[in-house]
Amino acid sequence: MPQPPSPQPQDAVPAAPTATTLWFMLLALLSAFALSQAYRTVTAIMATGLQNDFGLTPASLGAFAGLFGLSFGVTQFFMGIGMDVYGLRRTVLSAFPLTIVGAALSAWAPGYPWLMLGQLLIGMGCAPAFLACTVFISRHFPHARFAFVSGVAMGVGGLGLLFTGTPLAWLVARAGWRSGFVLLAALSALAWLLIWRRVHEPALPGPAPEREHWGTAVRRFGALFVLPHSLGIVLLGMVAYASFLALRGLWIGPMLIERYGFTLVGAGNMAVAMSLISLFSPALFGRIDPGPTRRRRWVVNCSLGISALYLGVGLAPHAWINLALVLAISVLSGYSILLYSDVRSSYPPDLTGRALSLYTMAMFLGVGLMQSLTGWVAGWAQGHGIEPYRAVMATIAAALALGSTAFRFLPASPLLHQQNAEPTQNLHKNWL
After folding, report:
1. Hey, which bits of 94-193 come out as E strands?
2. Residue 228 vs residues 224, 355, 414: alpha-carbon distances, Å
3. For 332-372, how does the pLDDT look when each residue is reduced to its tens digit (9 = 90+)?
4. CA distances (Å), 162 to each of 42, 86, 243, 272, 352, in order?
5. How far apart, in whole angstroms, are the C-alpha atoms of residue 307 and residue 387?
6. Cβ–Cβ < 8 Å for 283, 260
7. Residue-wise pLDDT tens digits, 192-240
8. Phi then psi for 123, rounded to 5 degrees?
9. Which pTM was predicted?
């Protein structure tokens, strides 16, 4: 007797990843971001050794520090499109080996041109590091938690800043600046292996989107520039993080050593204090995010307040006043996470990844320009008998004030007026 046909098995639907799985993947991505933070701040500790070995002027030192930001920022354009076309995992795994090569080249560099080539490769390799984290959070965590989770991510990534404080200062003081690049190259290789092993981006709900051609992706990216509210975001984005990184990543060490007679390890201790604060301040600002309708006012007030603090650092007559002002800057600089939330709220969902890429590109182009500009200003000030750090801090303060003013008076996204601010005390209900 013939058997009835057996029912065809239905297509298996992959189970949604758990919150723990998502956090493990995010932490793996953050390992690359932490190293990116370390690379972009090594100059503050290596400056004295580089000047002694290669006879660098302040302008050359600023160009070296700024090249990371410039190469990082320019490459954002390709990384943002690459993540949309090929995915986060493939983009990060393809780019990050350049970081390992660049660090090894820097450790070997027999002269300044080779050192600059190494810095160029490091910046290109680190380009997808934080963008991958923010896009991952935007896609796989609740929208209401974006500011908080991004703040936590920025804080965890700040562990890289801790490395370039006292630990790197101790290593450089004993084994030279080249040993720092050797260690960073080894850590970068381990981070690449961790991402290769742990990160497998889960599928988004709904039908899989059709893969875009590069030409279409480029045109859609370019469309962001013609939106009226993009200009204010870009202008403040170019100076907000750049102001903090110019201090933490370039000038804090030389300023404390030359102005107040600190040792290299003593300056490293101060860099560690700034880094410790940066672990928590973004998450704090993310936790108290006032929502789309009030967030921009908070951003403007914080950035103008920090501008005034930089003026104070430039004029501080005593070391303890300088240190207090620097710590205050470190606390308030956590407000920059609110700018990421503003970007997230200012564009429709299909443009979020590109918008975050545009903001990150502006942010790191600003880092490169700020560090190069302040290096030139320091050299100009020395040539005219002006205390260089006073001129540098005044330049940073002026740039931040101009960016804040542009953000305040240029148009805001009409989407912000359509979104109701959710009370922060209820945000825990949206947790995964």
Report:
1. none
2. 9, 13, 10
3. 998 988 898 888 888 887 777 778 878 888 888 888 889 88
4. 11, 33, 19, 5, 31
5. 19
6. no
7. 999 999 998 877 665 555 666 666 767 777 778 888 899 999 999 999 9
8. -60, -40
9. 0.73
